[in-house]
Amino acid sequence: MMPRAQPVPQPAAVLRSSLSTSLARYRRSWGLWLLLLIAPIGARFMISDESGKGIVIAINDQLPVLSSAMLGVWLGIVVTTLLLPAGYIYLRANTNRRQPWQVEEVTAAPRVAMLMGRFLADAAVLLGTLGTLTLAGWLLGWLMVSGPYSPWRITYPLWLIAAPPLVALAALRILFDAVPWLRGALGDLAYFFVWVASLVLPILGADQPSSFGTNLLDYPGFVRPLKGGETVGSNSIQIGGVDPGTLKPGRIDLDVAAGLNAPGYVAARFAWIGIAVGLVLFAGLIYRPHRSGRKRPGHGRIAKLLSAGPPPAARVDAPPAHATRSASIGLVLAEFRLIGAGRLFLLLAMAAALAGTAGDYRHIGSAAALLLLVFALSAHAGRSEARGLLRLTATTATPPMARRAAFIAAGLCWSLVIALPAAVVRGSGEPLLLALSTGAAAAATAMALGALTGSSFAPRVVLLIGWYVYFSS
Amino acid sequence: MLTLTNIVRKYGRKTVLNGVSATFPSGLTLLVGPSGAGKSTLLRLLATAEKPNAGEIAWDGAALPGARRALRATLGYAPQAVDLPEDLTAREFALHMAALKGLDAKAADAQFGAITERIGLHADINNRISTFSGGMRRRLVFAQAMLGAPRLLALDEPTAELDSETAASVSALIVERAAKAAVVMTTHLADALAPQAVQVLRVDQGRVAPQ
């Protein structure tokens, strides 16, 4: 008898299946509906007036006249500059972060089709959020714009500016998931650098005449619309929190349409969508399987240096452990040990403490200590708030909120311990005060976001951005 | 002693446990029944990991939720699936659980060493959990449940994925503990453990009855 031909997975069918299952998982997650709700509510806080409440966009220290087109540009720019990390966090921490790779990766399904399906689902979710933001923009426009009210003039610049970076963000997430070393903390760090570069690169092309090439560098798409018809390079642009006292009275009337129609601008926006699709194809080609859950312990010199060594000899007749005299102190100590788990952390903590004894403490010692704590705190917050572990820890005598409080106290202790040598060498309490405020803020943020998302992605990215603001201010 | 009275547990429209009443005295209680019958659900209710939709759970005569804290203070729970923190060593994880149980760290470390020695895990307790096989993970979850001197042990298939020799070591520890505590467990080794059990309960179609 002839053997029956083996079925060959059709790429289109794999893509369709991957897309529909991803969308189904999104649809059943509360996170999606929260995102769709937050976007329009948050829209109001994306537009600032002269009071400086909300996110300010100022050109030459003046707010722009809020025409319909300018409103669309404003919302679009806020999304592509300040809110993209939130989109990244959402994609990395959402319901689709766990895939049954153990069984998927041994099938003959083409990786490109599988990843393309996931990418389309991620992009659809982000663009859906942009859709709800558009609806909010229409409402805000009706209430706020000066001059003729036009929903289309709000929608066109908003989508032209914001849609390509959102699609590219979805592609970046897929690319990061394709490479083992980018699936964890290093991926978050890499994204942080990509985000910072995306804010800096547009400035490089800002003084050049508008062309496809210069606009391609402007991934967030803010330069041309805010330069308007003005002489290239003559406008200074501020986006974000601006001291209202520095704003000049009156508003600047920008020719937004001239910026949007500048040579090469629209083509560059569409090129970013093409780049996104290219990234997904590339991710499919370079896709590397997940490593087996069981990793072999290292045997090299470094592995030996970093390992905890052999366990102490066991006493088989050891009696059952008795209750500790102070459960709260025991809990803080346990959290302290786990935040600083591993010899690598101890080595780096010693280096950060040493760095703080010389030079500008605020920008060297304190920044180094905070950077170390960003990774340590987010790692432990993520692991202790993993949903599958909570089912076990919630059945112990310690209520979850007590554990979280102990985590914050332990994070604070680490911050103080690392700052102690600097305080001693300087004979000043200032490093300790700085450590107190930064440590408490970092620990509380890590725990709040870890508890909210059940993973370390969100705290790590948010804390990295916070660290960058702290370091550069 | 733990008692359940008219417990109902539903997931959406599906009723998994329907009017279950049972008593779990000191000693070993085995839960048997087909897959999906509600054995793990029953264990989660005993371990306070879930709340019933109706009915009463009482520990030493006091009803939950009032007595929940007292019950958790003396509970050891080993669920089937746990998201173990892969980047910690087994010992670090066990000491974390000991702190959450309010146990003295040094004494818990010694006890963990003793338990893991008996179940063949001690040589690996300073290795990261990411290096562990399925059976090693299962033993680690069991070992943390045994920390302290729990008066109620809720164990969900503690001997699954273990070779017969290791399963026998785990079973021996369970039987020892059952001399001083109420131990409720699901197991595929029910026939071997039944002679040691004070009762064997069959869970089927939402009901619990002595086998």
TrEMBL record, chain A:
Transmembrane segments: 30-47, 67-91, 119-144, 156-176, 188-206, 270-287, 338-358, 364-384, 405-425
Domain of life assignment: Bacteria
Alphabetical keyword list: Membrane, Transmembrane, Transmembrane helix
Protein name: ABC-2 type transport system permease protein
Organism taxonomic ancestry: Bacteria, Pseudomonadati, Pseudomonadota, Alphaproteobacteria, Sphingomonadales
Automatic annotation (TrEMBL), chain B:
GO molecular function: ATP binding; ATP hydrolysis activity
Keyword presence, Manganese: no
SMART domains: AAA
Protein's name in the database: ABC-type multidrug transport system ATPase subunit
Metal-binding listed as a keyword: no
Organism of this sequence: Blastomonas natatoria
Keywords: ATP-binding, Nucleotide-binding, Transport
SUPFAM superfamilies registered for this protein in UniProt: P-loop containing nucleoside triphosphate hydrolases
Domain ABC transporter: 2-211
